[in-house]
Amino acid sequence: MSMNSFAADALGGKIRDRRKLLGYTQQALADAIGASRKFIVELEAGKDNASLGLTLRAMGELGFDAPGTTSKDTQGEGFAQEFEKTLEEGDHEFALRLIGEYASASIKAQRALIFTAPCIKDPEYLTALGAITRWLSRKTGTPSPGWTRSIRPSRDPVFLSEKLYPVGDRMKDLIRRETPPEMEALNVWIRERDLVTA
């Protein structure tokens, strides 16, 4: 095997693994970069004659680093770690602010940035982050990361602001009316306007 074939095989495997992690089908990735499914199949198989431009587009769509850029994975990992630390410290006020920052950064990046489930012990926050990540995926027209598919609806309604102060019935009714369907489906209640801070 030549060095070029070895590199193409390794890159193809990384692209396939990332595509699956992010929940893209081969066709969805092909559509996102303006290529055929056959191109994605050959790219993942390590064909070393793949178009450089389309390969770079696929890598960009999947959040791989390009020289001189910030990795979307690194940014998402930073948010996940910040949520873990903040909730471990019980700082719910900052955690609510982080939700807005995560949503705003994801909208700017045109994809949900948390690719893998954060290690959060608070089931309400984990459910809320899953719901928000699903909403972000719909909003940006990208597949939901795989970890969000295992999130189940909360048994009790989740109003994260109640971790700071009581929320009256009238306010809960307003929040319910303005909550996106992805969150409603998981029994998480946050107004869409409260999600994006920028």
Could you give a quick summary of the protein structure above?
The chain is an all-alpha fold. The chain has helices spanning 3-22, 26-33, 37-44, 52-61, 72-88, 92-109, 123-140, 169-177, 181-184.
Explain this structure:
It is a single chain. This protein has 198 residues and is an all-alpha fold. 57% of the residues lie in helices and 0% in strands. It contains nine helices and no strands. Helix 2 (26-33) packs across helix 4 (52-61), helix 5 runs antiparallel to helix 6 (92-109) and helix 6 (92-109) packs parallel to helix 7 (123-140). The radius of gyration is 19 Å and the shape is elongated. The chain starts with a helix and ends in a 14-residue tail after the last helix. 30% of the residues are buried. Mean pLDDT is 85; it is low at 67-71.
Structural class: mainly alpha
Question: Largest sheet, described in full?
Answer: none
The count of strands amounts to: 0
Distance between the termini: 50 Å
- Mean pLDDT figure: 85
Order of helices and strands: HHHHHHHHH
Gyration radius, in Å = 19 Å
Q: Helicity level, as a percent range?
A: 55-70%
